[in-house]
Structure formats: structure tokens, C-alpha cells
Design brief:
Rossmann fold; 3-stranded parallel beta sheet; about 300 residues; binds guanine; 6-stranded parallel beta sheet
Length: about 300
């Protein structure tokens, strides 16, 4: 068997086109563009690439992008002051503080300073509580993107066995909440899980988010299962290569021979994260401006 390849790049492009349509309608109704502010502290190269991409795609979708770049030695109080200004700025609908922050800052304290109505990352404890209790709020972008791909591939997820490998606040935990909300039977596996291969073998849906290159083997996958690979790992350069290959947390070649469907790396989950961020920012704009958005529109 050879798995269907889930094309996240194409799915994200279609979603962005829909967002651009709704952003134009929003601008006409509200008399202003929807606005997303991104705050970057320091010069982490990966974060710089993400932030640049976010700004570019925000503008391409017809929304306003506000970038705040602060030096790595910024005092925490100064970052909190920037967040407070953005909380009170009516042109800003969504605020994203790029993680990781420099080690002298308390990430939880910084996230707690963001107005939950502008928390487009879904990281504030209010957003987390809303997610787990089924209330309307913001859902972290990467897991929400995974759910979109899964529902597009499988239709209803009700009753399916799902295993999430990884228990981070950004992916693993919210992913489990979303799968539970779709009526899956959910297992959260992690580095201390005993006999991980056996746990994964039971699953109709496998979501791998551990950050360990090609850790999930083809022999662990139940035939026909749907595999969502959230990992993005760069291997050391092979002989003659200047840069190492990008691989996921799943051994793609092995898993694709067994699975029913699988996301590639790159081009699977990765492109969904920013598309969902823009979606969340536009939903925030409608709520903040009191402009109605049809149920299920985005
Ligand atoms: N760093 C890596 N992923 C993310 C994300 O989704 N949001 C933020 N704010 N920082 C990140």
C-alpha cells in the first residue's frame, strides 16, 4: 500500500485565498483593515524567518501587519509595556509574541499580559480553559491546522483512536483537546511512555510532535492509519551537501508504505500554522469590531 499524501501547502494556499476574500469584506464593513501585531525579541535565526513570513502573508491577505523587533537584552518590563500598548490599540486585533523568549524573561508572565480577546496564538490560560471547556476562544495554530487537514482527509473523526506523541503546551496538549472535541478516543504519549510502538500501533490517527528526527517507525503504524507529522528537523549535512535535509518526526518512507494517508515534511503541517494564525487574526477582528462572521465561514 502507498499512502495518500496530504498536501498542506495547497490546503493552506486555498485557506489564505478565502481569508483574503473575508478580509476585504471586513475592511468594507469596519472601515479599517484587520490588524496583526507580531513581537520578536532577539535575533534567533529561525524566529526571524517565521516573523518575516508572518508579516508578508498578513499583508498578502489584505490585513495590516505591525512588527515590533526588540533587542535580546530588552527588560521584561519594557516588553510588558509594549504588550499593554498593543492591548489598547484599536488597530490591533491580534497579538503574537514569538517564542522562545530570551532566558531572562518569564514566558508565562508575558503570555498572561496579552488580552485574551487578542490572543491569536491561543496560549493564554483563558484561551486554554476555553478550549478544554468547549467555549469559544482562540485555538493554537498548529494543532488547529492539523485538525483541518484530518477532517478534510477523513470527514468525521468520531470514535477513532488517536495518539498524540508529545505533550507541549503549543502542540501536544491542545491537539489532544481538539481530537477529544471531535469525539476521538485520545492517548497522549511522551518520552516516558512505556512501549510507545505498541501504543502507536492501536491508533487510527497518529500525530507526532516530539522534535526527534524520524523517531516514529513504519512498523509502529497500523495499516491504513492517518499520520500527521508536526516535526521539522534538519539532519546534519550528508557528504557533498551544504545543508542537511529537513525531515519530520516520522520515518516518511517507511510510514508511507503502511499508512492510509500522511503529511510530508516539508509541505504538510508547516504551511498550515501561519494560515491558521491569519484566520485567527481575522476572527479576532470580527469579534473586536462587532462585525458578524457567518458560522463556519473560516
Ligand atoms: N514559536 C514556535 N511556534 C510558535 C507559535 O506558534 N507561536 C509563537 N508565538 N511562537 C512560536
Amino acid at each position: 500500500m502507498s499512502a495518500a499524501v496530504i498536501d498542506g501547502k495547497e490546503f493552506a494556499a486555498t485557506l489564505r485565498a478565502r481569508i483574503a476574500d473575508y478580509a476585504a469584506t471586513f475592511e468594507q464593513s469596519a472601515g479599517r483593515k484587520a490588524g496583526l501585531a507580531v513581537v520578536l525579541v532577539g535575533e534567533d535565526p529561525a524566529s526571524q524567518v517565521y516573523v518575516k513570513s508572518k508579516g508578508k502573508q498578513t499583508v498578502e491577505c489584505g490585513m495590516a501587519s505591525f512588527e515590533h523587533k526588540l533587542p535580546a537584552d530588552t527588560a521584561e518590563a519594557d516588553l510588558l509595556a509594549v504588550i499593554e500598548r498593543l492591548n489598547n490599540d484599536p488597530a490591533v486585533d491580534g497579538i503574537l509574541v514569538q517564542l522562545p523568549l530570551p532566558p531572562h524573561m518569564d514566558e508565562q508572565k508575558v503570555i498572561a499580559a496579552i488580552n485574551p480577546d487578542k490572543d491569536v496564538d491561543g496560549f493564554h490560560t483563558t484561551s486554554v480553559g476555553r478550549l478544554w471547556t468547549g467555549l469559544e476562544g482562540f485555538v493554537p495554530c498548529t494543532p488547529y491546522g492539523c485538525i483541518m487537514l484530518l477532517k478534510d482527509q477523513l470527514g468525521s473523526l468520531s470514535g477513532l483512536d488517536a495518539v498524540v506523541i508529545g505533550r507541549s503546551n503549543i502542540v501536544g496538549k491542545p491537539m489532544a483537546a481538539l481530537l477529544l472535541a471531535e469525539s476521538c478516543t485520545v492517548t497522549i504519549a511522551h518520552s516516558r511512555t512505556r512501549d510507545l510502538a505498541e501504543v502507536v500501533r492501536r491508533a487510527d490517527i497518529v500525530v507526532a510532535a516530539v522534535g526527534r528526527p524520524e523517531m516514529v517507525k513504519g512498523s509502529w503504524i497500523k495499516p491504513g492509519a492517518t499520520v500527521i507529522d508536526v516535526g521539522i528537523n534538519r539532519l546534519p549535512p550528508a557528504e557533498g551537501e551544504s545543508k542537511g535535509r529537513l525531515v519530520g518526526d516520522v520515518d516518511y518512507a517507511e510510514a508511507a508504505a503502511v499508512a492510509g494517508a500522511i503529511t510530508p515534511v516539508p509541505g504538510g503541517v508547516g504551511p498550515m500554522t501561519i494560515a491558521v494564525l491569519l484566520r485567527n487574526a481575522l476572527v479576532a477582528a470580527h469579534r473586536n469590531a462587532g462585525v458578524a462572521l457567518a458560522d463556519g465561514a473560516l
